[in-house]
Amino acid sequence: MYVIVMGAVGGIMDEFKYLAIVEWAKRAINEQGLQAGDRFFSEAELCEIHNVSRQTVRQALAVMESENMVWRKQGSGTFVQTPGRGLGKKSFTVGLISTYFSDYIFPSIVTGIELVMAKNNVAIQLAMTRNMVSEEARALQTMLAQNVRGLIVEPSKSALPNPNTVLYEEIRARNIPLVFFNAKYPNLNFPCVTMDDVAAGCTVTEYLISHGHRKISAILNSDDIQGHKRYLGFLKSLDDNGIPMAEQRVMWFSTQERPNLFTLSADRILTLLKDSTAVVCYNDSLAVSLLEFCKQRGIRIPGDLSIVGIDDSSQARICEVPLTTVHHPQQQLGECAAEVLLKMIDNPASDTGDVLFVPELVERASAKYTNDAYERAEK
């Protein structure tokens, strides 16, 4: 079950429509007394009843299947799997606060959390911050007022001093278990489930070096701790290979600058690219924007410039030049964060440390050997 935090998200957004359908289905199965094997509504009927797209209905049905509410047989329809009695009950509610929900890697992370909570009959209260500490404060205050049993939080602007420390101190004083995901505030000793961002930065940089690149630039987010850790990995790889770090090849941007980065900083980016044969991007979203920027200016990828991203998002797979990147565990990370939180709720004395997922390289078409390296390999 989901509870949407209206004040924190400014209304129910489109990405939550499928969750409302899941809750409606639970009530419908109960109220109509449907039993295992009974036919359920078709996709077309659900689209008409709820005035939503087929994609939204399919998202809802996928969740319903994961909760063993229904099963689908191709060509035959959708059928009730679990009888109505007992559906819709919840044991308690936990809060989930994320910077975003609707795009990039976040839907998969939320799905992972939802699957574990559903199996354990736990409701989720959702709030989105848009990476703003003021929205994070509002979400925390709302959830504290609602007496949630635990919290899963993605920090906002995690590389900067946190102005919400008093709220986190209250959470600890009230013995409310909390798990950070993707990042954590350095001064707060709550467990964190995340990808190893230092290793991610090191892996993509090492890949470029192995392909003969020495003039490697990096474009990184300055206010999220992931950017700093990926930078550390970038530096480590350069140092391990005896390549001096050139400060002019590192560009930092803030969350506020990101939407207009390639417009307002076009000259700065072009200067960076002219002195580079390859670029490490903060994430796949930035890398895809850089691909488009280069296309508009006649810079061939990977002919003139190699580009690598981080996260292995869906964007990396479907963009015009598929990205070489490292894989983010996404759904697995969400499942792990939920499991860690439930363990802390069941056993408050449990000694739960951080969980780091090791990133794996995904090689695609956006990076290649330099001409010199290719000629040496041929010989």
Summarize the structure.
The protein has 15 helices and 15 strands.
Structural class: alpha/beta
Helix proportion range: 40-55%
What fraction of residues sit in β-strands? 15-25%
Query: Spans with pLDDT under 50 lasting ≥5 residues?
Result: 1-13, 85-89, 373-379
Give the biggest beta sheet: 7 strands, parallel
Average pLDDT taken over every residue: 89
**What's the β-strand tally?**
15
Distance between the termini: 62 Å
Strand arrangement across the biggest beta sheet: 1-5-4-6-7-8-14
Count of helix runs: 15
Encode the helix/strand succession as letters: EHHHHEEEHEHEHEEHEHEHHEHEHEHEEH
Secondary structure blueprint with pairings:
Layout: E1 2-4, H1 6-9, H2 17-31, H3 43-50, H4 54-66, E2 70-73, E3 77-80, E4 92-98, H5 106-119, E5 122-128, H6 133-145, E6 151-153, H7 165-173, E7 178-181, E8 192-195, H8 197-210, E9 216-221, H9 225-240, E10 250-253, H10 261-264, H11 266-274, E11 278-281, H12 284-296, E12 306-308, H13 314-318, E13 325-327, H14 331-346, E14 355-357, E15 360-362, H15 371-378
Parallel strand pairs: 1-5, 4-5, 4-6, 6-7, 7-8, 8-14, 9-10, 9-11, 11-12
Antiparallel strand pairs: 2-3, 13-15
Helix pairs in contact: 2-4, 3-4, 5-14, 8-9
Primary descriptors:
seven-stranded parallel sheet; four-stranded parallel sheet; disordered C terminus; about 375 residues; disordered N terminus; alpha/beta; globular
Describe the protein in words:
Helices cover 42% and strands 16% of the residues. It is built from 15 helices and 15 strands. The strands form 4 sheets. Strands 1-5-4-6-7-8-14 form a 7-stranded parallel β-sheet, with helices on both faces. α2 (17-31) crosses α4 (54-66), α3 (43-50) packs across α4 (54-66) and α8 (197-210) packs parallel to α9. The longest helix is centred in the middle third of the chain and has 16 residues, at 225-240. The radius of gyration is 23 Å and the shape is globular.
